[in-house]
Amino acid sequence: MNLFNLVWLELGQRKSQLLSGMLAIVLGISVIVAIRSVSIVSETAVAINLDNLGANILVLPQGASIDNYYSADIDSPTIPEEYVTRIVNSTIPGVDNLMPRLSRRVEIYGTNLVLSGILPKNELASKPLWQSSGLFGAELEAACGDNPINESHGYEDEKLQRKAIDSLKLTDCLLGASAARRLKVNEGDVLTINDFELQVAKVLSETGTVDDDRVFVHLHKAQQVLGIPDQVSAIEIMGCCNAISDGLLGKLRNILPDTRITTIGQIVSTQVKTNQLMSRISIVMLIIIIIIGGISIGNYMWANVNERKKEIGIMRMIGFPRTAIYRTLIYKAIILGISGGVLGFVAGITIAWFIGPLIAGVNINPIPELLGWAVFISVLISIVGSLFPAHLASKFEPFSNMQDT
Amino acid sequence: MRTIISTDKLSKIYQHRDGIVNALQDISLSINQGDFVTITGPSGSGKSTLLMALCGLIKPSGGTICFFDKDLTRASDQELSRFRQDHVGFIMQNFSLIPYMTALQNTMFPLILNGYEKQDQINRAISALKVVGLNNRLNHFPRELSAGQQQRVAIARAMVNKPSLIFADEPTGNLDPALAFDILNILKSINQVEAITIIIVTHSMDAAEYGNVKIRLNDGTVVNIESVL
Ligand SMILES: Nc1ncnc2c1ncn2[C@@H]1O[C@H](COP(=O)(O)OP(=O)(O)OP(=O)(O)O)[C@@H](O)[C@H]1O
Ligand SMILES: [Mg+2]
């Protein structure tokens, strides 16, 4: 037996008291871990999107909310697919590439994912009308000049792979990396979505963006599967930077009056604000937790120490110096802190795992550094909360409490 | 015979909100190695206070206590704890076992701080339990033992560190006469076989008869010391 065994043995007593004393810390840590997990993932995704897509224009239905970049085109009404043709016919300069899409939340085999209908490049290009407008012609590219933003138009960047999809059969689908993981399917498997069978043509590699949780199908297939014919939920336009500053947005608004037209940069900056708000909330939460958690652990320790006065007297009697009494209580605080941190982390990750896809459209994987932080903070709170009770316990005089049974 | 523990003009004053209590006044005693000392006296005469002071659990208000040549009244908490760890065993009226530890764990409890190997701790605890005849109850919790057995575990715990002194505060106070007799006999044999000095506080005249030194206290002072050779 050693001091550690002793603490361990004692912890096994009065379990319910122990659990209620730890509740505040576990709850608090779990909330922080959940918020942080979601916002870290969301921050990375936003950064990736901002880098790659900042200059892109998004044509959304009038009622669309742009508070959340991830759900901007998922939860809003739709606009007619015909608008694509309208833009093409308008011959507005600076419109480089058009990507109509229809995105909706779907449940596949009990997993919540987003189904995105997109038009592969070859079909856009093969439409005589669009071709004649020089949509992919040298003309427009020249109009954009050497703007660095446009350099990514080659779509060599993996993160933009869905934009580089040259062809997509009506019977095929593409899966984002995490969607494939969650559905446990591989390339070549057949997926059934709303009674439609689709073959998984490719599993896209991890991008760190919302695309990872999406299932891509042909736009017209998506309209069929979702029962929304001839409609799209957003049209993404690869605009040239200089064209945007020349009032491209205004010109588009003129020909599409009942839509909401914005740059992805704007939407993403809204998301950045949301993320900043979340980090501020987590700091406030942290302070509250430090106070409440510390008090509740301190309270538990104090009650525990008082209940164990006689035991502490025995310890003094058999030769425990005050410092050893103090040490056993601090060991105990450390054990409570570590378990509180680990439990809080597990609970937080579980919460994030459920709410991540719902509130931010991202899937959460456990972030190991957060475990370190959770344990560190929890141990710190626990020790600080226990210092005073431990100090008083080490001052207990055996005489006054040894005689009464 | 060498003097193992002695006091000189020892006094203890408790500060109480109703005034001060002179629990011990001018106590001067000298106890030899191997003695079996009994302390008697009316309730409130300061017997427990004296015992606690002798092992350094309470700080005297005046006078000195010496363990061999060492002045305990000047020792730090660390030193006093060390003294109890190495040289003192303590037995109380209410058994004072830890309820969630088995007989074996309770017995080895004092060895926690000595840095013995686990197996060594167990061996020492088992041989102490053997002395009190409880080596067949190692894994029993206090609630699974009779009152007399609990007190025997307390004795095993008091002697597990091979102390030079065992203090017992009314060790038989809670036991019926037959069991009390058992316990006193065990203490007597520890005193004789292991040559451990034993100092017990008791109310019972029968128990007092076990002592070769009999001290009587009244109102915090020694009224009589009787030594039998
Ligand atoms: N913590 C304390 N504060 C104030 N007075 C105390 C305290 N402890 C003991 N006393 C007083 O000191 C005196 C001696 O008490 P002590 O417990 O030593 O008596 P005792 O001889 O052991 O009595 P008993 O036979 O009833 O156990 C008593 O008058 C008691 O009221
Ligand atoms: Mg007493």
Notes on the structure:
The complex is a heterodimer of chains A (405) and B (229). Helix content of chain A is 56%, strand content 16%. Chain A has 405 residues and is α+β, with helices and mostly antiparallel strands. Chain A folds into two domains: 3-45 and 272-400, no CATH class; 63-257, no CATH class. In chain A, helix 2 packs across helix 13. Chain A is elongated and about 95 Å long. Chain A has a nine-stranded mixed β-sheet with strand order 6-7-5-8-4-3-10-1-11. The N and C termini of chain B lie close together (12 Å). In chain B, 48% of the residues are buried. The longest helix of chain B has 17 residues, at 177-193. In chain B, the strands form two sheets. In chain B, strands 6-7-8-3-9-10 form a six-stranded mixed β-sheet, with helices on both faces. Chain B is α/β, with parallel strands linked by helices. In chain B, strand 9 (213-218) and strand 10 form a beta hairpin. Chain B is built from seven helices and ten strands. Chain B has one domain (34-60, 74-227): P-loop containing nucleotide triphosphate hydrolases (Rossmann fold, 3-Layer(aba) Sandwich), CATH 3.40.50. Chains A and B meet through helix 1, helix 12, helix 13 and helix 15 of A and helix 1 and helix 2 of B. Residues 47-48, 169 of chain B line the site of magnesium ion (MG).
